[in-house]
Design goal:
369 residues; mainly beta; Methylamine Dehydrogenase, Chain H; five-stranded mixed β-sheet
Length: 369
């Protein structure tokens, strides 16, 4: 990819609570609006999932059109049971799918979902009790279970992210590897990061974000946030400025938004020595990254709406999970505002048109129109 990145000056600007200091979805390319207007819509809960013994949790969401969207997660029961949670938006309502799933994927956790079109939907299915993990694929009519092309009994070999491309293609990512299915066969490539999120603007322009893999023989080594780019040939890690304080831990990026070749966002967070989670945010302008120090909790999701407003999900952790707080940050024209959602929001997705925005958090699906 183009010239190597240059380190840039750290920009600092702080607002109260979960806020940000500089201009900062789905994993398919989004249309970039250069001029943002103030938020014009509203957030509302449109679906809640009933749980089992220990409730229900949505973990990811994606959309291909205003009449086609998917959300995945799990419903837990007993001490270690996991029932797959898959719901679909058909343009009129959200409906949970159960009998449609292959038997191998009915008692697993569905961790990630992505779709290039209604006939190419891919889901990561993880069996946390040591059973068979793999991928689910929907071709527009039927679901099939696709065993991972390698032995996933090794935790490092299990996929952590999936992105779907046209023509039935898909990429899966994990700890130092990326695998590509071209519609007929799988191939593997090394990628110099542990991937937590990825997005494709085209088959020759893919971004992956996550963290470095600490040296396994160094107990004091700490991970750092990391970004890699695919130019159609290979994956290259791109340096980030001032990644995180030296005494931090669990430092990683968790979401990425790519609106244009010169407008890519990556957000996440790290834990301080006193156990407080802090945000991380970076923006790529086509030639350099800019880092912004934020005041708040970990950033877990990012999307852009039809008015050009950038939305960021912010999660403040508490020693008592019941006291966790969730905020949405909205950036319009260089001005940031703080919004309290009608339900917890951790991950968002939007259409190329930018509306509606759908979001998930805990057992709820929310919508912004």
């Amino acid at each position: 990819m183009g010239p190597r990145l240059a380190l840039v000056t750290l920009a600092l600007l702080t607002l109260a609570g979960c806020t940000t200091g500089a201009p900062t979805g789905p994993r398919a390319a989004e249309t970039h609006s250069p001029v943002a207007t103030d938020p014009q819509g509203r957030w509302r809960v449109i679906y809640r999932q009933k749980g089992l013994d220990y409730g229900a949790d949505f973990l990811d969401i994606t959309a291909t059109s205003e009449s086609d969207a998917w959300a995945v997660g799990e419903r837990t029961f007993g001490t270690d049971g996991h029932e797959a949670l898959l719901v679909r938006w058909d343009g009129k309502r959200w409906r949970r799918l159960v009998k449609e799933l292959p038997k191998q994927a009915r008692y697993v956790t569905l961790t990630k979902v992505d779709a290039s079109d209604p006939g190419n939907v891919w889901i990561i299915a993880e069996d946390k009790e040591g059973g068979e993990s793999g991928l689910l694929h929907f071709d527009g009519r039927n679901w099939s279970f696709v065993p991972d092309p390698v032995d996933t009994s090794d935790e490092a070999a299990s996929p952590s992210e999936v992105i779907a491309l046209g023509g039935g293609q898909v990429w899966t990512f994990g700890d130092g590897w990326a695998r590509h299915f071209d519609g007929q066969r799988w191939t593997s490539q090394a990628i110099p990061i542990v991937t937590h999120a990825a997005i494709a603007r085209s088959p020759q322009d893919i971004w992956a974000v996550g963290e470095t893999d600490p040296m396994p023989d160094d107990a004091l080594a700490q991970s750092e946030p990391a970004v890699a780019h695919f130019d159609g040939r290979s994956w290259q890690r791109l340096p980030l400025p001032a990644p995180s304080p030296p005494d931090s831990s669990e430092s990683r990026l968790e979401a990425v938004l790519a609106g244009a070749a010169d407008d890519v966002w990556a957000v996440g967070g790290y834990e301080t020595a006193d156990g407080t989670f802090r945000p991380l945010s970076y923006r790529w302008n086509g030639t350099a990254w800019r880092a912004v120090v934020l005041d708040g909790g970990r950033l877990t999701g990012i999307a852009r709406d039809s008015g050009g407003v950038v939305w960021v999900a912010c999660h403040r952790f508490s020693s008592d999970p019941g006291d966790d707080s969730y905020r949405l940050l909205a950036e319009a024209g260089g001005r940031w505002s703080r919004v309290t959602p009608s339900a917890p929001v951790t991950t968002m997705t939007s259409l190329p048109s930018g509306r509606p925005l759908w979001a998930i958090g805990q057992n709820a699906i929310s919508e912004y129109r």
